[in-house]
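Objective 1.3, modelling of assemblies. Example input:
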Amino acid sequence: MSKIREHITLVEGDLDTPIEGDLEPYVIFTQLATGRPYIYAGWVDAIDAAMAIQFGREHYGQDQKCVGLWAIPKPAITAGGAEVTARGRYEVFLRAESGEPHRSAGCVEAESSREALDTARRDISGAAEARSIWVALSERIVATGPDDVIWRLTDQTYRMARGYASEVRAKWEEVRARKDIEEYEKDDLKEMF
Amino acid sequence: MSGSSNVGMHIDHVADEDPQKLAEFEARIDAGELIEPDDWMPAAYRKGMLKMAEHHANSEIIGALPEGEWITRAPSLRRKLALTAKVQDEIGHGQMLYRISQDLGKTRDQMLRDLITGRTKYHNVFNYPALTWGDIAMIQWLIDGAAIMNQKTLADGAFGPYVRTMRRINMEEAFHFKSGEDMVLTLMTGTQRQREMCQEAFDRWWYPSIMFFGPPDKPNSEQLPPMRWRMKTELNDSLRQRFVNRFAPAALDLGLKIHIVTKDPDGIVTSKTPDKNLRLNEQTGNWQFTAPDWDEFYRVIRGHGPCNRKRLALRRLSYEQGRWVRKAVLKGSTALPPAA
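Predicted structure (tokens):
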């Protein structure tokens, strides 16, 4: 950052520009290995699905190895609230325990989101006991492709705690060994003289 | 980074709430259940969680400013990559926490505007300057260390979206802390000049990190809504003691000296004396230390810290300079950047 930025004068008072709108919320699910469920990762705000996927890849796809990403616009998710009345395939997400993230658990064919929830409770394993069920029309889900590389293949250890573990341990040993030598020399000198 | 401990939380009484629903809500919290956005909650709880999440979000994006200044001056490519990733993480935390706040009823644009016009606050600790690379090491070691301690207890809270976000944030904070520890160790095992730089930065950051957990608790804190409703789960003073127990002996092992300092208005240390109260109490197992200057804390929080104006000025400039981008994205128009 340039030094110029350190000398900006604070403009005080209200802004004279009108309030702007917000982007749309999308929920992002990540898949950690092929064939595994898609797990709730969090939300992003985006103008459309393409931006949501791109943002999601950067934001939720880089903390751990990730092979696939889903983005779903908030209004397309039903948890018993607003009903979607469209015939089709609905993806089902279950929260097994209080506070756990939702995970994809399969899909059902239904006439509406309400029917999808009922069918899921009957047909999807674990749904009847789940703490919360989300359904979303499959066609509203935007996904990364099978050949997309989300997790970067270059060395990422500089952005992970384990990337520092052995260096930190070695340096602590050096620090403590030095301290031991100093203590030893102190005692030694005391006895010698 | 950050953490919300020092947000002023004055929750109104709940006399207007339906006593039946309030009792059910409190029973759920006592049973360790998580509250989700669609569940019934007292209006004061919604308002309090919004204030807490918004303050936390503000802290994340302002907290990235002192560190962002150092990306171009990082001493090696690896450190530069790590610092870039860390700053990206912090902005990402802000994005997640603003999302939670939006779901509680306030638009993001309103939050960004309230921040730059001084209607809302961010964490006090970011009003101190990062003068050398040593400060960057100390921010990552002490402040991120304090943030992890605080956020681990916030992850035991009761509001589902906030709890899940804390878990995700803590995963990334572990990297920030470890790389900070590595930086401090590197400096303290380095040359005489590096050790001096590290000590000087430590002198600047030790007391701000002790104050990080917020002012001393009120005597009845555990009965007040923020803790009764598990918006926060541990007292400021007990977090502070745990922090000192963890970091005072580590600093001494590193060869750092723990000082009480006085600073000028720019945050430059003008005098320092050893903290004579610093010692391990064998009976309690706690490290005793001289209490921070709480007058300084309140002075800084009221806007008179070394960097309050600088931080807000840069954030406000960024908001204004980014306007054409947001306009182009939101309206999908072909709004052009201002002429160079």
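The mean pLDDT of chain B is 92.
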